[in-house]
Amino acid sequence: MSVQDYLDKHMLSRKIEDAVNAAVRAKTADPVLFISNHMRKAVPSAITKVKARQILDSRGIPTVEVDLYTNKGMFRASAPSGAPSGMYGAIELRDGDKATYLGNGVSKAVKNINEKISEAIVGMDPILQNQIDQAMIDLDKTEKKGELGANAILAVSIAACRAGAAEKEVPLYKHIADLSGGGNHVLPVPAFTLISGGKHAGNNLALREIMILPVGAQTFEEAMQMGSETYHHLKAVIAEKYGPHGCNVVEDGGLAPDITSFREGLDLVMEAIGRTGYTNKLKIAIDVAATDFCIGSKYDLDFKSPKKSGQNFKSGEEMIEIYKELCKDYPIVSIEDPFDKEDWEQVKFFSGLRICQVVGDGLLMSNPKRIERAIQENACDALLLKVNQLGTVTEAIEVVKMAKDAKWGVVISQRSGETDDSFLADLSVGLATGQIKAGAPCRGERLAKYNQLIRIEEEIGEQASYVGENWRHS
Asked: Pathway, per UniProt (predicted)?
């Protein structure tokens, strides 16, 4: 093929002339850069390559990372991981070889991306998120993504979402809002973990988390300041009462003093809040994670104390009385998983009292069928969304729509095994969830999400809106 034939085949002369004319019309100060960008925009949008690898999450346990390439560049994403999600959540594919990472390796999931998923989606337009996600779901062919692994599918889905935003030349949160049909870019109230217990900590506290919500802040940046200051005041309070060892942090950055009762933990938090001067601007949320200490139809509040376990059983009715008293005595506005994941009757009754927001985590597992049942039965009034329990961005958007249509609150949630991927921050703004639970204002993988929200607020500028007191229904 001659040079002229090559130029004619690809219409290079016309494309270059168009780019030069555009640069002249724009009177650009850097015509070479302008022409380069103009030509790049003329290239058809397509995924050109997908490459996965095994990395470690915040717990030192393997997870999946993906580099997805288009003509616009490379886009990276990683999948968070948590405790096994049970019978209702999507399946994280693990190698099971006890000789390597104690069986937690993800080389099979990585291989599935490099050999199967890559072949299926290379050539697809990254803007078409739904089609990319559906292609992976169809390739897997199982209800819970057990063939390819939800960890493999999710990492690719998030990377594709980033590529789609780049193709449209819009911020990631804006692209997510477009995908969901939404338009309001609101900054969520952060639920900062202050004290950890349950199976997340080595103390004797039965409930899993005590959190604060800076609903009285005017901006997200101010909310971060409130959270950080309260966290550090709490460290001082705990050090005074229990010694420096009480300030050790756990997986999500929460402090874990050697306490045993709900009230003991709440009193520590209230003292810290008192020292900040933010008393009227901070509310409290608790994650009970009651499934962890449910035995039959009873709840063992001393399940972590071998010498006491079995001596402090509470019935569902008694737990309701405990929650009612706590909500009366402390500024608690949200309780997550107050009962076992199958204790539908108690959670329905408690939700009906309208004492506080009742968040479904173990009850729902981000599973559309469980969410639909909970909506029909008024079993709770807020969804805790863990994207890895679903496996794709598209499915996350769909369940958030379900929750919002039911007038529920929505909490975007971290996992115990996180990475420095900040996707959850953009997801919370793009879907206008109003609430995000990303751990304590401590540890890099947690702050990756919070710091990204600071950047987003700055980028939006004067149009930025922090939900504040409207955190329930943003």
From this structure: Carbohydrate degradation; glycolysis; pyruvate from D-glyceraldehyde 3-phosphate: step 4/5
Strands 294-295 vs 189-196: parallel, antiparallel or unpaired: unpaired
Identity at 235, one-letter amino acid code: K
Q: Using one digit for the tens of pLDDT, what is the confidence trace for 106-118?
A: 999 999 999 999 9
Q: Say whether 240 counts as a known binding-site residue.
A: no
| Alpha-carbon span 407 to 23, nearest angstrom | 50
Instruction: Give the side-chain half-sphere CA count within 13 A for 383.
Output: 34
- pLDDT for the residue numbered 306: 73
Tokens for 18?
Answer: 């168009």
Judge residue 49's burial from the number of C-beta atoms within 10 Å of its C-beta, 0-12 exposed, 13-18 middle, 19 or more buried.
exposed
**414 known member of a binding site:** yes
Smallest Cα–Cα separation from 234: which of 262, 265, 200? Answer: 265
From 72, 235, 283, 386, the catalytic residue = 386
pLDDT digits (tens, 9 = 90+) for 284-332: 999 999 999 999 889 999 888 877 666 789 999 999 999 999 999 999 9
- Report the CATH architecture of 47-169: 2-Layer Sandwich (3.30)
300 annotated to a ligand binding site: no
DSSP secondary structure string for all residues of 84-121? --TTSSPPPP----TTTGGGT--HHHHHHIIIIIHHHH
Decide: residue 199, CB within 10 A, 0-12 exposed, 13-18 middle, 19+ buried. middle
Q: Report yes or no: 74 and 118 within 8 Å, Cβ to Cβ.
A: no
283 is in an annotated binding site: no
Listed in order, strand segments (DSSP E) in 31-164 are 47-56, 62-70, 73-78
Rounded CA Rg of the chain: 24
Note whether 81 and 415 are within 8 A (CB): yes
The two tokens of residue 463 are 């149009």
Instruction: Domain 180-470: state its class.
Output: alpha beta
Distance, in Å, from the CA atom of 52 to the CA atom of 48, rounded to the nearest integer, reads: 14
Burial class (CB in 10 A: 0-12, 13-18, 19+), 71: middle
pTM here is 0.92
Relative to beta strand 209-213, strand 283-287 is antiparallel
Task: Tell me phi and psi for residue 371, to 5 degrees.
Answer: -65, -45
- Whether 308 has a binding-site annotation, put simply, is no
How many CA atoms within 13 Å lie on the side-chain side of 230?
32
**Annotated catalytic residue 252:** yes
Q: Which of 57, 95, 133, 252 is catalytic?
A: 252
In 10 A of CB 87, how many CB atoms? 9
Domain ranges across the chain: 3-41, 47-169, 180-470
DSSP state of 91: P
> Are the C-beta atoms of 160 and 170 separated by less than 8 Å?
no
DSSP 163: H
Type of residue at 363? L
33, containing H or E segment: helix 31-41
DSSP 115: I
